[in-house]
Design a protein that fits this description.
Elements (H helix, E strand, L loop, with lengths): L2 H6 L4 H7 L1 H6 L53 E3 L4 E3 L3 E7 L3 E8 L2 E4 L1 E3 L2 E7 L2 E2 L9 E11 L4 E11 L5 E4 L3 H4 L4 H15 L20 E3 L4 E4 L4 E4 L3 E3 L6 E3 L4 E8 L5 E6 L4 E11 L6 E2 L4 E5 L10 E7 L2 E3 L8
Parallel strand pairs: 2-10, 11-13
Antiparallel strand pairs: 1-3, 3-7, 4-5, 4-9, 6-7, 8-23, 9-10, 12-15, 13-14, 15-22, 16-21, 17-18, 17-20, 18-19, 19-21, 19-22, 22-23
Length: about 350
C-alpha cells in the first residue's frame, strides 16, 4: 500500500486517539463512523492494536451502620400518697399530695368531708382542714382520723390510697359578750341561716389554680381583739358559740386589704356578718372580710395581696366597729392566724 493509499484509507477511532488525543475528544461523538479526506502530519506507520485497559474498580460499599437501640420506655409511676405532716391542731390545715403518672383526677376524703385536688407541678394537691363547717360551732375531737385519696387513672381505672392523720387539741378561751335586745335578735337560728346559705354556696367551688404563694398578709393594721375558736357566752348564757374567725379592732373607716391574690367572689350585705367581701384564692381557700362600712371592689374583680377591699365598720351582729376576718378551707372555717407570717 502506498503512502497516499494509506492516507486515503479510513481512520478508525483507535487511530484518532493515538494521533491526536485532543481532536479525538472533540470527535468522540462520531468516532464509530469512517473519516475520509486528505490529512497531513499523521503517522505513516500502522499502529498495532493495544490491549484494552482494565476497567477501574471502585472500593466496596461500607456496610450500613447498625440502627441505634431504642431506650426502653420507663414504666408509668403508680399513684402514691404523700403527707408532709401526719398531725394537725384543731383549727389547722394540712396538705395532701398524690404523685404518679396518668392520673386523670383525684379527691380526698377526711373525717366525713371531701376536698378537691388540683394539679400542682408533677402531682395533685389538696388543702384539707380540721375546722368548723359553716353554721357548725364544734371543733374536731382530738385523735387519729382515717384519710383516703380516691384516684382515677386515665381509662377510668380506680386506685384507693389510705393514710391516717392525728388531730391534736388546741386551747380556746371563753368570752362573754353582751348585745342590745335589737342586736341580740340577730342570733335567732332562722336569721343566722340566711347568712349560712349564702356562704355555703360561695365557699363550695374549688378553683383549680393556687393563687396564694406563701403566708398571707395581715388584712388590717389594727390590734387583734379576738381569736379563732373562742367559746362565746351571749348575754350571760352558757358558752355555746365558737368564734369562726379572727377579729381586728380599728377605727371606723380604716382600710381593709386583701390577704393574698385572688378573685372577688362576693360583695354583699348579710344579716349577721354585715357588709361582706369574700375573695377566692384557689384550691378551695377563701378569705372573708365582714362588718365593713363601705365596699371598694366588685364581684369578679382580680385583687393582689394588699389591695384595698373596703373599710372597717359596725354592720351586722357587732358591739362596735371592727374587722371579722375568715379563712375558709374546703368549706370549713379555720384559724387564720396560722396563715399569717407573724
Amino acid at each position: 500500500m502506498t503512502l497516499m493509499t494509506r492516507l486515503r484509507a479510513p481512520l478508525t477511532r483507535r487511530c484518532l486517539l493515538r494521533a491526536a488525543p485532543a481532536a479525538a475528544l472533540a470527535l468522540i461523538a462520531c468516532a464509530e463512523e469512517p473519516v475520509s479526506g486528505r490529512m497531513s502530519g499523521l503517522a505513516t506507520e500502522q499502529v498495532p492494536d493495544q490491549a484494552p485497559r482494565p476497567a477501574a474498580t471502585s472500593a466496596p460499599p461500607a456496610p450500613p451502620a447498625p440502627a441505634p437501640t431504642p431506650a426502653p420506655t420507663p414504666a408509668p409511676r403508680p399513684p402514691a400518697l404523700v403527707l408532709p405532716s401526719s398531725t394537725v391542731a384543731q383549727g389547722g390545715t394540712f396538705l395532701v399530695v398524690v404523685t404518679g403518672d396518668r392520673i386523670a383526677r383525684a379527691l380526698v376524703e377526711f373525717a366525713g368531708h371531701t376536698f378537691g385536688m388540683v394539679r400542682e407541678r408533677d402531682g395533685l394537691l389538696a388543702v384539707a382542714a380540721v375546722g368548723q363547717a359553716v353554721g357548725v360551732f364544734a371543733q374536731f375531737r382530738p385523735g387519729p382520723y382515717p384519710l383516703r385519696a380516691i384516684v382515677e387513672l386515665e381509662g377510668g381505672v380506680p386506685v384507693v390510697l389510705d393514710a391516717s392523720v392525728t388531730v391534736e387539741a388546741a386551747e380556746f378561751p371563753v368570752e362573754s359578750i353582751f348585745f342590745t335586745p335589737a342586736v341580740a335578735a340577730l342570733l335567732a337560728p332562722d336569721v343566722a341561716e340566711q347568712d349560712y346559705a349564702v356562704l355555703r354556696a360561695v365557699f363550695a367551688p374549688v378553683t383549680p389554680a393556687r393563687r396564694w404563694e406563701s403566708y398571707f398578709r395581715r388584712p388590717s393594721a389594727a390590734a387583734l381583739t379576738d381569736v379563732y375558736g373562742s367559746r362565746r357566752s351571749y348575754n350571760g348564757g352558757a358558752a355555746t358559740g365558737s368564734h369562726s374567725g379572727v377579729d381586728f379592732g380599728g377605727a371606723h373607716g380604716s382600710p381593709v386589704v386583701a390577704a393574698a391574690h385572688g378573685t372577688v367572689a362576693l360583695v354583699q350585705p348579710l344579716v349577721q356578718r354585715g357588709n361582706v367581701v369574700v375573695v377566692d384564692h384557689g384550691t378551695g381557700v377563701y378569705t372573708g372580710y365582714c362588718h365593713l362600712s363601705a365596699f371598694a371592689v366588685e364581684e369578679g374583680q382580680e385583687v393582689a395581696a394588699g389591695d384595698w377591699l373596703g373599710n372597717v365598720g359596725a354592720t351586722g351582729l357587732v358591739t362596735g366597729p371592727h374587722l371579722h376576718w375568715d379563712v375558709v378551707v374546703g368549706g370549713m372555717h379555720v384559724d387564720g392566724l396560722r396563715w399569717l407570717a407573724s
